[in-house]
Amino acid sequence: MTDINALKTELTSEIEGAGDLQTLDEVRVAVLGKKGRITALMKTLGSMDPEERKTTGAALNALKDEIADLIKSQERALKKQDMDQRLSTEGEDITLSARQAPHGKIHPISQTMEEMVGIFGSMGFTVAEGPDIEDDFHNFTALNFSPGHPAREMQDTFFLPEDDGEEGEYAKKLLRTHTSSVQIRHMESGEPPYKIVCFGRTYRSDYDMTHTPMFHQMEGLFIDKDVNMGHLKGCLTDFVRAYFKLDDLPVRFRPSFFPFVEPGAEVDIGYTKKPDGGIKLGKAPDGQEQQWMEVLGAGMVHPNVLKNCGVDPDEYQGFAFGMGIERLTMLKYGIPDLRTFFECDTRWLEHYGFDPLDRPNTTTR
Ligand code: FA5
């Protein structure tokens, strides 16, 4: 009969002597595997007499367990040694630059509105707001549109069901066709002077390359005791030149009609045609014809509008102006089709959008 204690001493030294995981595995197979030394001894139990089988069987089982435990703990020790060795030699490359986290882009409409807030803010205008769902009074009547005035038809309005809780012109609800309604709401809300700009969605039943059913407008209103047409011209000339970043951009005021201003004007800016069919904003070089395009509407606020808002036109006067934000954005950033603004195509936004950390009114970090 093998001396179990001697075998244990021998196997223990083999296991502890295994210097790497592969050697240890070879020892395990040689001891506990199908043809291993302990397995072979187990097989001899069958030929023993009952008394001997009982004592030898118990001793062999205990030996098997002890050896299995010893192999496990040697395996742990070797793995730890391996890891320590790798940690001390390999090290992490912390110089590798971080992967760029994807971030969103600012929509060109938001960018333009912020640029406009910056320019008009520097001229002392504050920002006012009004509702998208308006009533007939604020969108038309108070702005001096007479009942049945052709301009009402011209605007192709989206009307909503009448509001039972209101009367007359206030009951007739619609999606505002322009931001001029905010002039009225602002004048109703307090005493003059008024010096505000307003931005927002406006709606008309239109759809082609330069018209969409929903678009954005910007409105301005300046009323005080001595505001005149010269202020209007100076303010808007400064604005378009600052917005397009062209100090000598030609600006022209052309008589026009809007029921809520008198006199009314359309403001044109100068450009020239490029050989490739594109346009170049600015003064035409000698020998080339100066072209003009309309960018906004303006005028001295009609006395009837002031009266409709409880403001005395003999004491106060001033000017108003309005413009399409998409139009000015397309011109400045060379965006050809208005409809693409609202298609929610992230590739379009990736191309035409602006970096969030590079906005006109945010301090860069
Ligand atoms: C007005 O809406 C006036 N309320 C502007 C105004 C304000 C004049 C204050 C005088 C004093 P108009 O209808 O021209 O004006 O529209 C202004 C601009 O809105 C247009 O020049 C155009 O750029 C834009 N616009 C009009 N309809 C659409 C549309 N369907 N899609 C996109 N932009 C449009």
Question: Can you describe what's shown?
Answer:
- This protein is of the alpha+beta class.
- The protein folds into two domains: 2-89; 108-243 and 314-352, 2-Layer Sandwich (BirA Bifunctional Protein, domain 2), CATH 3.30.930.10.
- 39% of the residues lie in helices and 19% in strands.
- It has twelve helices and ten strands.
- Strands 1, 4, 5, 6, 7, 8, 9 and 10 form an eight-stranded mixed β-sheet that branches.
- α2 packs antiparallel against α4 (50-89) and α5 packs across α11.
- The two termini are 83 Å apart.
Chart the SSEs and their pairings:
Elements: H1 4-17, H2 21-32, H3 37-44, H4 50-89, H5 108-122, E1 126-128, E2 133-135, H6 136-139, H7 150-154, E3 173-175, H8 180-188, E4 194-203, E5 214-224, H9 229-243, E6 251-256, E7 261-273, E8 279-281, E9 291-301, H10 303-308, E10 317-324, H11 325-333, H12 346-352
Parallel strand pairs: 1-4
Antiparallel strand pairs: 2-3, 4-5, 5-10, 6-7, 7-8, 7-9, 9-10
Helix pairs in contact: 1-4, 2-4, 5-11
The structure holds adenosine-5'-[phenylalaninyl-phosphate] (FA5).
> How large is the radius of gyration?
42 Å
Mean pLDDT: 92
Task: Please give the count of helices.
Answer: 12
Q: Name the shape in a single word.
A: elongated
CATH homologous superfamily classification of the largest domain: Bira Bifunctional Protein, Domain 2
Q: Which structural class do you get from the secondary structure elements?
A: alpha+beta
CATH topology call of the largest domain: BirA Bifunctional Protein, domain 2
What's the helical proportion of residues?
25-40%
Number of strands: 10
CATH architecture of the largest domain: 2-Layer Sandwich
